[in-house]
Model the fold of this input.
Amino acid sequence: MGMVQAEITLKNYDDEISVRQGQKKPEDIRTATVTAIVDTGSMYMVIPEALSQRLGLIATGERTAHIANGQRVNCKLIKAVEVQWKNRDTVVSAIIIPGSEKILLGAIALEGMDLMVNPVDQELVGVHGDKEEFLVV
Done:
């Protein structure tokens, strides 16, 4: 299967909360529309340091991550970034891999938006069709 990419919008979730509390205006929410590599083998969302700074995201800790080349690297952890794809959204943690400029849309974000990769058309699709549905077990 080839590489699947998707245009997504990232938002500073703390800004969203500040809007709900009346501390900020909706136009003050820091956002960025970017092209991400859909990586079903990655658990977390991965964003570059520069994008994190542009969105005003604050690292809350560090994690050790295994990356595709087999290395273990220390990464900064961002606790909450909102991810939007078409009519779907979710809030996920993200990691910053030092020196990486790639944006990866990982499995947790895909699950949160009820998405999967269609291997035939090599595109994102809703697991249960075009409408976002949540299964309660």
Q: What stands out?
A: Helices lie at 13-20, 49-55, 107-112. The two ends are 31 Å apart (CA to CA). The chain has three helices and nine strands.
